[in-house]
Amino acid sequence: MNQDMIIIDGSSNEGGGQMFRSALALSVLFQKQFKITNIRSNRPNPGINNQLLNQITLITKIIKSEVEGLKLGSEEFQFRPLQKFLPQDIICPAQTAQSITLILQSLLPISINAQKQVSITIHGGTYLNHCPTIQAWSTIFLPIINQMGLKCNVKVLKDGYYPQGGGLIQAVLEPVQNTLNQLIKKEFTKINKLNCTYLLGSPSDTQIFDQQIVDELKQYAENGQLIINSEIKIVNSKKFKKCYGISLVSHSNLNSYDYTIINDSDKTIEETLANVIGNTKSQLEQQTCFDDHHQDQLLLLMALAKGKSEILVSKPSTHTESLKYVIQKFLPECLIEFEKTNIKDNYIISVQGVGYMFE
């Protein structure tokens, strides 16, 4: 397993699991073997954690491959794909609150190569800390990749929360026709609509909080007018008796943004909402086309697309820097540039895609 081995330093930049997931996807798509060292070395508990172990194990079950170092706590791992993805429906069980969206991130680039419809059933958590929520995925990420020619429909059958999980989704991926389209998003427009999900320990009247959100954010709205649609989801947890979190997504005519906060410990609605509104204001002040959570999620697909993609963001995140590093290990011909603009110190991320042919 040493011939033409790509070596990845897992401690580079952000040094998290996103590097690992992207390396696996690129390895399968381009049939290149890799070795990753210093896995999650920047984390309090370095090495392969339970969530990564489940994701890698799932991929090794659906992709014939040779692996070394696939165990909990391992800080070094080698992977050699022996085939590409063969058309099949995928079922991913879970006993804990593994992130459903992170599993989708792992499977999406691999399984769209099937050239037939693929159904994916995943058990786990839909609203977890430090992970994209299923609401953000469904209302922001999926519409964007649909523009790129990647059609994925997700149906939430049951929500899942930390620590017990219990969520269930079904995703259906349609085959990509030849290549992915380039993505151009460089124009900021003011918001006009909000979707808010209160994740609470018990039922509560949230109308006053809806009004507070509108009052504090209408300065960023088109003509000072904002529509808000809200809902309450009850989280049955001994740890979160007050407020598990608040998921707020804003929309403009061209762009959408995620400002979700999932609490580490039980907090009041008021405390959580203050953090959400503060986060939202700081993001909207930047006048970009993406929130900080989505720029890195798109980088891999932009690298696979045909043509030059350009998106307007605030300063590239450490996740984005890490992905650039991994992508260029596998695809040195893929030019990825971060160009600073003269407006609010924002950046244009440009990616000259390799035009990967899905077949």
UniProtKB/TrEMBL annotation:
Record domain RNA 3'-terminal phosphate cyclase: where: 13-332
Domain of life: Eukaryota
Gene Ontology process terms (BP): RNA processing
InterPro entries: RNA3'_phos_cyclase_dom, RNA3'_term_phos_cyc
Single GO term (MF): RNA-3'-phosphate cyclase activity
GO cellular component term of the entry, any: nucleus
Protein name: RNA 3'-terminal phosphate cyclase domain-containing protein
